[in-house]
Amino acid sequence: MLNTPMQWQRWRHCLQMGFFILFVMAPPLDLFRLDLDLGHFIILGKNWTLGIGELAQQQISTTDAIFRLVFLVFVPLLSLVLIFIVVSWFYGRVYCGWLCPHFSVVETINQLMVKAIGKPSLWESKPLLGHQAQAIYWLAVIPAVIGFGFLWALTLLSYLIAPFTLYYNLWHGSLSQFQFIFLTVASLVFSLEFLLARHLFCRFGCAVGLFQSLVWMANPKAMLVRFDKTRAKHCQSCQQVCDQVCPMRLKPRTIKRKMFTCTQCGQCIAGCYQVQALQFSLLNWTKSNPNSKI
Predict the structure, then answer these.
(1) pLDDT for 109-166, tens place per residue?
(2) pTM for this prediction
(3) If phi over 0 gives left and psi between -120 and 50 gives alpha, with beta otherwise, what is residue 61?
(4) In the 8-state DSSP scheme, what is residue 212?
(5) Is 43 exposed, middle or buried (0-12, 13-18, 19+ CB in 10 A)?
(6) Under 8 Å CB-to-CB from 225, ≥6 apart: which residues?
(7) Backbone angles phi, psi at 100, to 5 degrees
(8) Which of the residues 63, 101, 163, 228 could staple to 28 if both were Cys, CB 3.0 to 4.6 A apart?
(9) Which has more pLDDT, 171 or 64?
(10) Quick check: helix, strand or coil at residue 137?
């Protein structure tokens, strides 16, 4: 049973790691990718075509083509969208906080940044309380930023062309012009984003995250992190740990509309739980109060 915030965090990290591995390995395992050379998707090792080519060559009937369009495109996409809307309606950006491979990179670089400069972002006004800069950790920050940037570029390209052909060309230094330009530009862009603007992207640039937030805000009974004001006296001696550990740089002890980009990662809950000597947390997941100001 997951009875404590710390156990929830360990489970969340396992899910993040598993989903990140799935994100990287899906193309070479042919679980999901779009092969530009073949001109169609490959899903679970099988060619996923709409039959347009076969229809043009009169190899299949119009009825078969319509059947493929409805049951191979419309129904699966509609089902995924509905599931995503329902989950976002009740739990907000839970995908971001528990699965998103980009957010797991954000959290990793945050932790390294705190060690290197005493704060999780270059744009923080001052170091976090109790943290001192240790410049030696820049030797970990820079390789992590560049490494994750390149890995993201390589992974995204492997979703578009045959992965093993790409890996072979990369290993033997025989990349095509398109492959070389894509990997170079994408690696540079991702590296700069991971170094300078990862929080800004998550908060303002991610369409998936923004969609989840909008759906979540529309539900007055959605799950959110709420501060227990009845026990506020226990918060007086704390050094704002909940604010410090939030990967999105939010202030959890506030109203819902100011937590618009909350990823439901629960780190603020775990931080408070530790500060309170592992007895209780002043922050907990609960349903919104429809009568409160959001």
Answers:
(1) 999 999 999 999 988 888 888 888 999 999 999 999 999 999 999 999 999 999 999 9
(2) 0.88
(3) beta
(4) H
(5) middle
(6) 252, 259, 262, 264, 266, 268, 269, 283, 284, 285
(7) -50, 120
(8) 163
(9) 171
(10) helix
